[in-house]
Amino acid sequence: MTEITIALSKGRIFEDSAPLLKAAGIIALDDPETSRKLILATNHANVRLIIVRASDVPTYVQYGAADLGIAGKDVLLEHGGTELYQPLDLNIARCRMMVAVPKDFDYESAVFQGARLRVATKYLRTAREHFADKGVHVDLIKLYGSMELAPLVGLADAIVDLVSTGSTLKANHLKAVEVIIPISSRLIVNQAALKLKRETIQPILDAFSNAIGK
Ligand code: ATP
Ligand code: MG
Q1: Which ligand lies nearest to the CA atom of residue 58 in the structure?
Q2: Nearest to residue 34, comparing CAs of 11, 16, 56, 12?
Q3: Which of 76, 92, 95, when mutated, tests ligand 1's pocket best, judged by the most ligand atoms within 8 Å of its CB?
Q4: Is the overall model pTM greater than 0.70, yes or no?
Q5: Which atom of ligand 1 is nearest to the CA of 11?
Q6: Of 47, 76, 160, 192, which has the fewest CB atoms closer than 10 Å, so is most exposed?
Q7: What is the domain range of residue 68?
Q8: Which residue minimizes the CA distance to atom 15 of ligand 1?
Q9: Residue 212 has pLDDT above 80, yes or no
Q10: How many domains, the chain?
Q11: Buried b (16+ CB within 10 A) or exposed e, 97-132
Q12: Does residue 188 share a domain with residue 177?
């Protein structure tokens, strides 16, 4: 019987994926939130889960270290998604990639064609493309987290970040001024694995599609 490895990140992706995995008959034998294990066995002798950083999921699948993975559209856009088959939008971990600025900042006046803006973000590629499309020059400042702080201490004029409720922005006197793209998590599949292990992978894909009503 073929072995299948599925790459996931803990936190919201694991929580939202667990019901979908269950619909495919896959239940983790350990809880990644409490276990220190990075490889989790499941009730399926031939299916295991690996727990990696959200932004590392595409890399594991791209190189075939995992056959399947679940990753946010944000992560896939930054990764480039080359060679990854993305058959399903799972509609989980939904939020929006947005531009945010201090609440008294006049964004409309600041982003005319040819303007220059300092933008702090973890999402360099997405931010670069977004502002290039508008003809706005950006000095991009790469951060790894807590982007909301940057405009408050003069590191940047604006940030590009994921927003769901907007409460973190509000708590830091920022406002969202532009939606770049709606975000949700996708199933990603290694192309070679799909060919070589189709008999095992296809039923999992079908169960996921059924569970999300597609
Ligand atoms: P880390 O927290 O390890 O630095 P991360 O922030 O990328 O990495 P998570 O916070 O677990 O990891 O986010 C995983 C994915 O969940 C993101 O890639 C994104 O697709 C989605 N996500 C992030 N923030 C939100 C949010 N506020 N609401 C809904 N989905 C979100
Ligand atoms: Mg996070």
Answers
A1: 1
A2: 11
A3: 95
A4: yes
A5: 11
A6: 192
A7: 4-93+184-211
A8: 72
A9: yes
A10: 2
A11: bbbbbeeebebeeebeeeeebbbbbbbbebbeebbe
A12: no
